[in-house]
Every structure is written in structure tokens, then in C-alpha cells.
Write the C-alpha cells for this entry.
Amino acid sequence: MDKAKDMHEIDIEMVEMTLDVVKYAINRITNTNPELGKPKKEEELRELVGETITGTGIGGEKAFAMFKEVFVKATVPIDHPRHLAFVPAAPTRAAIMFDLVTSASSIHGAYWMEGAGGIFCENEAMKWLVSLTGMPAPAFGVFTSGGTAANLSAMVAAREKWRRHPQNQNKKGLMVTSIGAHSSIKAMAKVIDVDVLLIETEDAISGDSLSQKISGLSAQERARVFAVVATGGTTNAGIIDDLDGIATVCEKEQLWFHVDAAYGGGALAAPSVRSLFKGIERADSVTIDPHKWLFSPYDCGAVIYKNPEEAKEAHAQEGSYLEIFKDEGAHGFNPSDYQIQLTRRLRGLPLWFSLATHGTEKYAWAVEQGISLANAAGRFISEHPLLELVRPPSLSCVLFRRVGWSADAYRNWTYDNHNAGFALVTPTKWKTSEGYETVARFCFINPDTTHKDITDILKSME
Ligand SMILES: *Cc1c(COP(=O)(O)O)cnc(C)c1O
């Protein structure tokens, strides 16, 4: 038997399997109330399914049945309307559907030579993202696997630019950010081996607090500072730093100004809060995760550069077998030149299709829903005798406390709701002058979440 042929052959069984899979996908795409699954121990899963990878294969039918009956039930659907933990997601049906098409189309997304049509579509969506930031031409960006990869790509571009000065060639870089910044900033600083200087506040950093931090440095330390990372919507609390004030300091001090708006970036589309982001248009680079608040399926992040040529100098890969991509005949925009990844899927394509389908106004509406759900939750909490807001809702995040609860009580509440298949809502910590306090947190993304969902969850704390 010709094994290679066999594996790619289309026979009646493969066609039936394809129909089954598509039917399942359609059911899932149209199901607005999916089961809230929960994790099982690895041993439990093993016991339920046995060996799945064998020399001769267990067959697609069996593997798919396992997926439907066992594996998917051990996962939490990120778009469940009562999934309000971490940063949930709510990809549009159009975007999910087109994710299937993107896979089926087998397009290489690194180089224009192979991916032109698809990259064109991605760039249409990117143009809209750039327009949301207000960054002037030639600002442009690329889609990445997420906010972490986008932040890393921006930090590499910033560090490379700084390193090009002969006096910086042997120095270890130093970045300034705040403790409200996302964990990926510190993690990626390790990857590029630079130090991080933290401004000790979870609240918004102002231009003044940044100036103070910088002027407190020794001359030696000051000479190592190459970038400032501000946050456009902290992941924990939705707080937006004073971007305009920080931009002014960065210009004066000649520092790269990165805005991490991985979570909050979607809110640039929301007229009610857009003014809070004033100054983002002055950034050298911006991270936005469409897979968070712009309703794309995983994974889809984006990094935008004020001057894409600077990113290209840092990221374009050289290789004899890659040279043809840079040839005039293959000319065009090569996404691999602007971020850390070479081979890439066209992960911006689902966003493009959804934007093309619905129009940008629907996006503005859907983001506003998250904000108004947060405000409604804020009202319900204020009116509740056992609950208190820790701070006013910001963007779509709400931090609140249950009077009298210990950290254990919050944890048990999380597990009880999850085990009951009712909701996934998790505690977080909030830093005060007395240290860290455990509190409850909502993050709203899904416009299908209802007021009743919120009040039912609050009731579970009584
Ligand atoms: C989620 C988040 C990230 C990380 O993004 P991933 O897509 O999970 O890699 C970075 N920064 C902020 C502010 C975030 O909210």
C-alpha cells in the first residue's frame, strides 16, 4: 500500500467525516449557551480514552467521538456569557467561520509572494486598527500570535534601535513600566535580557511620576534606559496610564514609547471612552489583541509601529533560501519582517472577514456593550448590602469585595460556581497602601452577557 497516498486520499469516509466535523462546527458556532466545562486530572482523562496515538491509528470517527464526549467537556468555552474571569473572549460567528476557511485555504502568511491575497485582507483589517490609534502615516503593523509576541516584537525593535548607537553596544538595557503592566512585559524583558524598573503603583502612571522615576536614577542607570511601557487598560483593573503625559516625557528623554493595549485596545473603537487614550497616537509602538476585545478567535494579536522601517531593521530575517521573497518580482508587504515569527498563519483573516461582514459600527456597539455591562455591575454592587466596589469600573473591569470574605472564601466561591457549571469568575489581588487585598473581579467582553447573568453571580456571594 502506498501510505503517503492513503493519508491524503479523499474517499467516501473522508467526505463523511468532513461533513460530520463541519456539522459539529456549525452547531458550536450557532450555540449561544455552550456547556461550561471543567478540567479533569490527566489520569482521569487517560482512563476515559486509553491510548489515542497508535501505530495504525484509532480512526477519525473514534478520535472525534472522544473529542466531543470527553475532551471538549474538559475545557471552558471562552465565549460563555458567564465566563467573566481573566480576559474572556467572544469571537463573532463570522470570524470563527472564517477561521475554518483560513485553515482550509492553506496559505503561508509570511511573504507576499505566497500570501498576497490573504495578506492584503489582513492589511485591510490592520488599516482599521491603525486608524483607531490615530497614529499618523507611515504607521502600520502586523498580526501576531498575541499580546506577548506583540510586546516582544516591539521591545526587540526598541532595543535594536537603541543598540545601534555605538555607546549602547555593550550596555544592558533598562525599561520603565509600572506594577500595573502585564506579566508578559517582565517575562519578555527576560527573553531579551533587559532589566525592568517598576513604578510602584497599580493606578495610572502620570508623566510626572515617570519623570520623577527617571530623575531618581544614577547617570549610569539613566544611560541604560531605552524604553517606557505604558498600559492602555491594565489587565487587572482596566486602568489607562496618562499616555499623553508619558509621550511628552519620552519625547524629551528620547525614549521609545510602547503602549500595551492588548486588552484595552478594543475600547479605542468605543466613543464613550476614546478620549481616555489621548496620547496613544504619539506612541512608537502599540500592542492590541483582537482576540480579546475585538471578537477574533484565538490566536490574534497585533503590533503597530510608528515607523515600520525601524521594526524591519530589527526583524527581517536573512537567509539564502529567503532572498527570492525580497526580490522585486515578489515585492510586497512581508509580515515576517515586522515581528518575531517567520512561518505564520493568516491570523488576521478572520478579523478581516468579520469586519467586512458587519462593518466597524457594529464593533463600536459591541465594545460599548462591555463597558455598559461593567457600569451596570458597578450599580448592582453599590446597591448590594454585602458588596463594595474597590474602585469605580474602568473600561470593562470591575473590582469588588464581599464584606467579611477571606482569600479562601473567594477561592471556594470560584470553585463552587465552576463545578456547578454555572459561571467562571475568579478573584484577583488589588494593591493598597496596606498591601495586597484579595477581591473579586469581572471582565466583560461578551455582548451576550445579560444583567441577569450578573445579578445571579452576585447572588452566589450572599
Ligand atoms: C493579555 C495581555 C497581554 C498578553 O497577551 P496574550 O495575547 O495573552 O499573549 C499583554 N498585555 C496586556 C495588557 C494584556 O491584557
About this structure: The longest helix spans residues 360-383.
